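Batch 3, record 17
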Amino acid sequence: NAGVTQTPKFQVLKTGQSMTLQCAQDMNHEYMSWYRQDPGMGLRLIHYSVGAGITDQGEVPNGYNVSRSTTEDFPLRLLSAAPSQTSVYFCASRLTSSSYEQYFGPGTRLTVT
Amino acid sequence: KQEVTQIPAALSVPEGENLVLNCSFTDSAIYNLQWFRQDPGKGLTSLLLIQSSQREQTSGRLNASLDKSSGRSTLYIAASQPGDSATYLCAHRAGSARQLTFGSGTQLTVLP
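Prediction for the assembled complex:
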């Protein structure tokens, strides 16, 4: 199994540009989520999904959209990037929403200038 | 709102020392608590997970304990090695929540 994969690893955007961060898992996990990590603040939940076709907001959803058309993929879209979205983004998955252990991807480092 | 605090933010110890990392949380209705390791520029690797019904978990030189009544968890690392240098994060999952709440981490440096 490849586990949780994320692309790209690094990205630089100009303010106002849009892009999609990709996340995929091959473990047939129902639950997937996106976090951002900022210095000194730990990880904060952006959006999550409990299964294909079902998404919900986390702690810091503003400026981000998600969709879940398949079990495997959970892309995160920035419609109009802002400097405040400069961060490291992690995708995670677990078997179900009640499963104990969560698995993380390697992260995408995004800089918005 | 659930809060998870990790103190200290950074810790430097000589090789061979035993050390304890601390994690405190405000919501005692805990489902589980998980300790992660993060190497620079990398993702998170799960180290230990303690369910609410457990008091501790052990893996090799690592031991994690959970005290729900005081809202604390500790990660004990025995005989530290330079390869243990990393940031250690704890994450709390409350009873009714699907998501994890993370602490900001303790950056550990083990000096050879």
